[in-house]
Design brief:
By secondary structure, this protein is mainly alpha-helical. It has helices at about 5-10, 15-25, 30-40, 45-55, 75-90, 90-110, 115-120, 130-160, 170-195; strands spanning about 30, 60-65, 65-70.
């Protein structure tokens, strides 16, 4: 990871995009303060965008006492991602992606002499300067994201074992649903015209 990556994070993505990127990739429920720090935005900014993400159904919010934590809706996220991976990528593309993710994680383990993203965060006290701290935090975020992506890619590859035919069953199901809805819409429209 280069020193420029921390700058790219805050310069190339808006506060909303950074907040969403962090919030949708957390591996456990996190507070607005934690998400704000990771996304490099003010607490109020993070809270505003987190509320929108909850309203949009992308996140779940849970309040205990005075503390609210946020986490992606795991089932909804999983199903959306699985459909996308299975419909839009071949098994070879998924395997190549899996290799690249594994290599990136191995690089962080070696470079920082750690075994987990949280160990990397704990190593912030070893950082040479503020930029190194930012680089380590970004690497930990990306590592968590890759762990999630890696599980999804592995599951998508297993779908190819379950549905090995050339015709993708998800695509067939979607086309059937669209056709059914079109027919129902036509029938309703036709009956309205007859009245």
């Amino acid at each position: 990871m280069s020193e420029e990556s921390g700058c790219d994070w805050s310069q190339n993505l808006s506060a909303a995009e950074r907040t969403e990127a962090v919030a949708l990739t957390v591996s456990e429920p996190r507070t607005a303060n934690w998400i704000a720090t990771e996304a490099e935005v003010a607490h109020e900014t993070a809270t505003k965008y987190l509320t929108r993400l909850v309203d949009d159904g992308k996140l779940r919010a849970e309040t205990q006492g005075q503390q609210t934590t946020y986490a992606p809706d795991p089932v909804g996220q999983y199903l959306i991602e699985m459909r996308d991976l299975y419909e839009n990528h071949s098994p070879d593309e998924l395997a190549t992606s899996l290799e690249a993710m594994n290599n990136e994680i191995r690089t962080w383990k070696t470079e920082y002499d750690v075994e987990t993203p949280n160990e990397l965060r704990a190593s912030l006290s070893n950082a040479a300067d503020r930029e190194d701290e930012r680089t380590r935090r970004q690497a930990a975020r990306e590592w968590e994201h890759l762990q999630t992506r890696r599980r999804l890619v592995e599951d998508a590859l297993r779908l190819y074992d379950r549905f090995p035919s050339e015709q993708n069953p998800v695509s067939v199901w979607l086309r059937a649903q669209r056709t059914r809805l079109s027919i129902e819409h036509w029938e309703i429209s036709s009956s309205d015209k007859l009245r």
